[in-house]
Specification:
The protein is an alpha/beta fold. 29% of the residues lie in helices and 15% in strands. The protein contains five helices and six strands; from the N terminus they run αβαβαβαβαββ. It has a four-stranded parallel beta sheet with strand order 1-2-3-4. It has a two-stranded antiparallel ribbon with strand order 5-6.
Amino acid sequence: MAGFDKRVSSYEEALAGLEDGMTVIAGGFGLCGIPENLIAEIKRKGTRDLTVVSNNCGVDGFGLGVLLEDRQISKVVASYVGENKMFEEQLLSGAIEVVLTPQGTLAEKNARRRCRHPGVLHRYRRRHPSGRRQGST
């Protein structure tokens, strides 16, 4: 898209279209490379009922963990639960829905979303040493 400029001048402007019930995909791995200032802006805005897709849900008081404090997250798709006590409490009480997804699958699903491609199911068969076919996935 020639001439398209996606830069913004503030975090508020970057999240201007974020509404209750939307899905947020947060980058980073563990607590490294996370969008701290965007998470702080989501907390400030008070946006609720969010589905968050991320490697994990931060720790108590940091990362995505700050959104758990005000129960702004209703569903988490992650590969790791981590050491977040508040996350654990909300999960065990049923206050938050959690979909645990292997890291590679999570990354591939995000790549497919970015390309607006549903993904491809690859069927394969392998041969048993005896020569007969085995399984199909």
